[in-house]
Amino acid sequence: MKTILETERLILRELVQEDYNDLCRLLQDDETMYAYEGAFSDQEAQAWLDKQLNRYQTYHFGLWAMIRKDTQEWIGQCGITMQAYKDQEVPEIGYLLQRRYWHQGYATEAAIACREYGFNTLQFPALYSIIRDTNQASQRVALRNGMQPIDTIIKHYRGIYMPHYVFCVRKEETSPTVIP
Predict the structure, then answer these.
(1) What is the pLDDT of residue 37?
(2) Entry pTM
(3) What pLDDT does residue 36 have?
(4) Letter string b/e over residues 14-30, b meaning 16 or more CB atoms within 10 A of that residue's CB
(5) CB–CB of 2/11 below 8 Å?
(6) What are the CA-CA distances from residue 63 to residues 14, 108, 172 (Å)?
(7) Which part of the chain is the N-acetyltransferase domain (predicted)?
(8) 62 and 78 in contact (C-beta within 8 Å)?
(9) pLDDT digits (tens, 9 = 90+) for 43-72
(10) Mean pLDDT computed over 69-91
(11) What are phi and psi of 162, to 5 degrees?
């Protein structure tokens, strides 16, 4: 398992097939997955994992497992993926946590670390977060990560048209951050 980043409380590492059960606990929780219109099936969870593993091969980055340093618990995912926006692919910081870890600062801590990694290691000039309009908690994480809303788009997923806000931060707009 390849460690990508460490923060004060977290290790972000590449996912492996052995993470499948932890990933299912995350992706198969209806409340956690409300922005995706509900829980995933076993097959959808495996497809999600396969997609991350393929991203590592294609881009050398993707969504990573979030591990608490103090307990070694698998608490969610955070990372950078390429996402469609206005007929192009943009680097997006995404995050998804098990419900019992919500509102404890883990998503913000991991997202800030990913922002710094995206700017300083991957050399992206701008990073995005594309967030469903109903997902106010994720919108607050994007704002704490220095992002501002720049656009609204509609995504079609699971037969539903879903408004999303596009948040963006540019490298020249940020000051150096000490990662917690």
Answers:
(1) 64
(2) 0.90
(3) 66
(4) bbeeebbebbbebbbbe
(5) no
(6) 8, 15, 24
(7) 10-167
(8) no
(9) 999 999 999 999 999 999 999 999 999 999
(10) 96
(11) -120, 120
